Amino acid sequence: MIKKILVLMPFLLLLLAGCGSSARETTLSLSKKGILTQTIVEDWDQDYYDQSELEKEMEAAVDANPKVTMKSFRIKNGKATATLVYESAEAYMDFNGVTCFWGTAAEAVAAGYSLAGEYLDSEGNDVSLTAILSDDKPYYVMILTEPVAVELPGKIFCASPVVEIRDRKHARVTTQKVQPGEKSAVPENAAEAGDGAGAQESSSAQGGQNASGSSGEDGLQIWLDEPAYIVYR
């Protein structure tokens, strides 16, 4: 599995490092059954990469993993796009080496994630999670440690302060606390990330552990120091 991740990392890190805030940005879409579709969209000026060779490497890595499918990949007019489908959040976490959890609030707690902390609604108001664990109808939680746009199959109830709630089903994990009414922006490189972010160095962190990485040689991928939580149902 590690070998497969290393094959994809040079490409995926370059794509994910500078994801912009335009309508066509890298996005994780979650289905009601827990299937994740990752759509990567990024400017591409890496002339030393040959598309056909890179595509073959990606296909080889994906084909070796029955839980991951590559639906499309292309580099055209200075833009790189790729769509990968993961059968579960666990498959995404294992393949990419990042924290990714999806399940009910109770399942998150059972898996070792702590739901303690500050949560805000779309208006920036503080939200108590007491009702989440006591409500008969379960709430679901998406947990991530990378800045990325997210599309969920239900209505977003609240999220960590580093999450920008865009509308009922769309949000964006950022690298710093989002102020009510403000739109998030992702720094162009690790040096501009500021406090609360680091370059990717380690694999996934489970059970509520930190997933921050110290500054690596590449300085490409930005991670959050603490997992971001998005609560919906």
Outline the structure in words.
This protein has 233 residues and is α+β, with helices and mostly antiparallel strands. The protein has helices at 2-17, 51-63, 89-96, 105-110, 130-134, and strands at residues 27-30, 36-43, 68-76, 79-86, 100-104, 140-144, 149-151, 156-159, 163-165, 170-173, 197-199, 222-224, 228-232. The radius of gyration is 17 Å and the shape is globular. The chain starts with a helix and ends with a strand. The model is unreliable at 1-7, 13-23 and 183-221 (pLDDT under 50).
Outline of this structure?
The chain is built from five helices and 13 strands. It is an alpha+beta fold. It is globular and about 50 Å long.
Top keywords for this entry?
about 230 residues, alpha+beta, 4-stranded antiparallel beta sheet, about 20% helix, globular, disordered N terminus
